[in-house]
Amino acid sequence: MRGRILLTWRLVASSLRRRPGEVVLTVVAITATTTTLMLGLALHNVTAHPYQTTRSLTSGPDVVAMPDRGSPSSVAQLDALEHRSGVLSHDGPFPVSYPIMTTNGSKILAIVEGRSMSPSPIDQPYVTQGTWVRPGGIVIERSLAHELSLAPGDHVTLGGNSFRVDGIAVTAAVPAYPHTVDEMNIDVGDGVWNQATGLVWATDANARSFATLSAPLNYILELKLSNPATASAFTNTYSDSNTLSVWSWQDVGQNDAEQSKPFQQGLLIASSLLDLLAIASPVVIVGGRLAERTRRVGLLKAVGATPRLVAIVLWLEYLILALVGAGVGLAAGYFAAPLVANPGAGLVGGLGVASVSWTDVGLVVALAVALAMLAAWIPSIRAARTSTTSALADSPRIPRRRPFLAAAATHLPVPLLLGLRLASRRPRRMLLTLVSVAITTTTIVAVLSVRAHEELAPSVSPRQFSIPYNPNTANTDAVLLVITVVLVVLAVVNALAITWATSVDSRKPLGVARALGATAKQLSGGLSTALLIPAVPGAIAGIPLGLLFVSAVSHGSRATIPSALWLAGTLLCVAASIGILSAIPARIEAQRATIYVLESDIG
Amino acid sequence: MQQEVVLAMLAKEPSHGYQLRARLNEALGPLGDDINAGQIYVTLGRLEKAGLVAIGTSDPTSERSDRKVYALTATGEERIAEWLNEVNWPRPDLAEFHLKLVTAAAARLADPIAIVGAQRRELLRRLRAAQRAALEEPAHSVAGLLLEGIVLRLQADLRWLETCEREWTERGDQ
Amino acid sequence: MTVAKTGLSATGLRKYYGKGTGLIRAVDGVDLKIEPGETVAIMGPSGCGKSTVLHLLSGLDRPSEGEMWLEGRRVDEMGERQLARLRREKVGIVFQAFHLIDELTAQENVEFPALLAGRSPKIARRRATELLDRVGLADRASHLPSALSGGQRQRVAIARALANDPVVLFADEPTGNLDSSATLEVLRLLEDLHASELTIVVVTHDERIAATADRLITMRDGIFVDETRLSGGSSGRLGSLFAVELDA
Question: Is the pTM of this model over 0.90?
Answer without folding.
Answer: no
